[in-house]
Amino acid sequence: MHLVYADEQGNVFDHPDLYGIARSGNDLVELLDEELIPLPAGATLVGLPHTRPIGMDPATGKMQLLPGAYQAVGALLPQGFTRFYVPGYSKTDKTQLFPLFGYTAVVWKDDGFYVAAGQSDDPEPWNPENCDRDELKLEVDRILNKYPENRLYKHLSHCALEYECLTSSNTFLQRLEGAVPVSFSCNAGCYGCISEQPDDSGFVAPQTRLKFKPEVDEVVEIMLEHLKTPQSIISFGQGCEGEPSTQAKTIIEAIKRVRGQTQLGYININTNAGLSDHMRAITDAGLDLMRVSTISALDEHYDAYYKPRGYTLKNVEKSLKYATDKGVYTSINYLIFPGVADREEEIEAMIGFARRTGLKLIQMRNLNIDPDAYLSLIPPAQGEIYGMKTLLDIFRQELPDVVIGSYTHVPPVNRQAF
Domain Radical SAM core: where (predicted)? Predict the structure, then answer.
């Protein structure tokens, strides 16, 4: 399992002598064969800016910096895969922050690239290679011609064609989970927000946030256009918007109007669930699925990352439990980081949270963040660190009725059963 590194032109090499290493939290670790899988289809290799690669001499076990103008390399994984380790690296300039992506340790082994990760869901539905860009362009043109006054479709066309966002692409391809963003504002100040960053954050938001308040008619058009099969999902709460429940009035009216015309498909919301009153009203309007983003079930850790405005983790738990009790298929968008999510205290807290709220699904999502910046923000570990592979085993053992996956699913049983 040899070290993978890149030159300043982006050419990638494997070192003939040094082994690749990885990182869990702040600790450099050796990789084991059972923690590696071949580089998945749809994954990409990227250089880590302002870094030097670190390798290990297998004869001595000594770790060393690779001399020369080279940088460390990480892999960006598609949905369906949970990373076990971050790449090993040393920063040459600690003031420079990585772009907001989820970097995974990668090595060269048996004449191919391998990553420190495991499969946690079926990757095929969200494999970027399955999105035909030519077909997408044709469908974008067709939909924009059909709805020339719909500003949301214009916004989503940019997300689909420029950012290559798969959820917005699905909206035009009329498959899987489609997007219907509604909010330009948020009640949290997430440290790693991908759509809006303060000027002094050091991060560059990789995409632009929605800048207008959609009309109910615009929202309803997108929902009805997408909800044409029993398995289709339309989702409020996208990476290009703030917190959707801040526009509860629009969402509630849109759901009522759509359900007055069709019962096909599923209506989902991706939310921080902090506005409990709004979430109850949205649930009661006819919501089918709810995915709540969280990074921890511990207040101190949650607050450090989300910087919630006017709500607490208790509000999030309250919203989830209410939705579960009302028959909504509930899940969490669990933002995980090796060396943090697999801490003893984090695992215990999350198991308790899942049991109290009646969660149906935990979506394991690799946190897009600069590792050093994140670790400096959150509380230090209080107990043992078990490892990400063990974390998944513990969840499956302790939460046998909870699905461990990677993305939003259609419920496994008929909605009438809820």
Answer: 181-347
Judging by DSSP bridges, how do beta strands 177-179 and 233-236 pair with one another? parallel
The residues, any chain, with a CB within 8 Å of residue 286's CB and separated by 6 or more, are: 255, 256, 259, 267
Answer whether 316's CB lies under 8 Å from 330's CB: no
CB under 8 A, 24+ apart: contacts of 311-316: 311/187, 311/272, 311/274, 311/275, 311/276, 312/274, 315/273, 315/274, 315/275, 315/276, 316/272, 316/273, 316/274, 316/292
Q: How far apart are CA 178 and CA 124, in angstroms?
A: 16
Q: Mind giving me the DSSP string for 276-310?
A: HHHHHHHHHHH--EEEEEES-SSHHHHHHHH-BSS
On the CB side of 20, how many CA atoms lie within 13 Å of its CA? 30
Which letter does DSSP use for residue 369 in this model? S
Report how far residue 234's alpha carbon sits from residue 226's, in angstroms, rounded to the nearest whole number. Answer: 7
Measured CA to CA, the distance from residue 381 to residue 228 in angstroms comes to 48
Q: What's the confidence (pLDDT) of residue 240?
A: 84
Is pTM, for the whole model, over 0.90? yes
* CB atoms near residue 239 (< 10 Å): 20
Q: Report DSSP state, residue 121.
A: S
CA 314 to chain centre: 22
Token pair 């995974």 in the structure block, residue: 104
C-alpha 409/C-alpha 360 separation (Å) is 10
- Cα(227)–Cα(308) distance, rounded to whole angstroms? 33
Which residue carries 């060393």 as its tokens?
Answer: 64
Note the pLDDT tens digit of each residue in 277-322.
999 999 999 999 999 999 999 999 999 999 999 999 999 999 999 9
Give the HSE-up count for residue 208: Cα atoms under 13 Å, Cβ half-sphere.
11
Strand pairing category for 103-104 and 70-76: antiparallel
How far is 227 from 233, CA to CA, in rounded Å?
7
Whole-angstrom distance, CA of residue 53 vs CA of residue 45: 14
Give the integer Cα–Cα distance in Å for 366 and 361. 16
